[in-house]
Amino acid sequence: MPLAEIKSNVEQKMNKSIEALKNDFTKIRTGRAHPSFLDNVHVDYYGSATQLSAVANLTLLDARTIGVQPWEKSMLNAIEKAIREADLGLNPSTQGEMIRVPMPALTEERRKEMVKLVKTDAENAKIAVRNHRRDANEQLKRLLKDKEITEDDDRRTQDFVQKLTDKFIAEIDKMVATKEAEVLTV
């Protein structure tokens, strides 16, 4: 495996770890409403589980309310049921042809729990990044042992991987600070 391939693989894997963390962060609720909060809600659409955004238009009605406008009137009850059963702590209500999903205000205690959850998710992402670094370094050691690369190449590539790791860890820390401020804002 050439060095360029190791470098690009480790960078891709670390990027995927960051993307996974971003996805995890969208599931953590702040006091504000955001349509992406309903991304993991699936509706029974003519016998198949379909993502909510595929059967309805999601909009922000105000800072704490998401509006769900189904494309078919017959889907109103199924969508409301799916949101209620998604275990997100939401209580949707139907008003005419639209479903309003108010976001309940978070208590101080719940905000602190959310911050702990943010930090746990971030630590898991950091562990994943470090594991990718370890895997890349093991591949380098194998190549060096098999005399496919020089010691200089090994050292330079290890330095590159370490700098990459530091960059991604710093990015995770920035994301945590941003999300923590978002969660703690009343």
Automatic annotation (TrEMBL):
Question: Which gene is transcribed and translated to give this protein?
Answer: frr
- List keywords of the entry alphabetically: Cytoplasm, Protein biosynthesis
Family membership: Belongs to the RRF family.
An MF annotation (GO) of this entry:
ribosomal large subunit binding
Q: Which organism is it from?
A: Hydromonas duriensis
UniProt domain Ribosome recycling factor: residue ranges? 21-184
The protein's job, in short, is:
Responsible for the release of ribosomes from messenger RNA at the termination of protein biosynthesis. May increase the efficiency of translation by recycling ribosomes from one round of translation to another.
For this entry, the protein name equals Ribosome-recycling factor
Q: Does the keyword Protein biosynthesis apply?
A: yes
- The primary site where this protein sits is cytoplasm
Is Kinase there in the keyword field?
no
Look up the record and give one Gene Ontology term from the biological process aspect.
cytoplasmic translational termination
| GO CC annotation terms, alphabetical | cytosol
Origin superkingdom: Bacteria
- Per its UniProt record, what InterPro entries does this chain match? Ribosome_recyc_fac, Ribosome_recyc_fac_dom, RRF_sf
Give its localization.
Cytoplasm
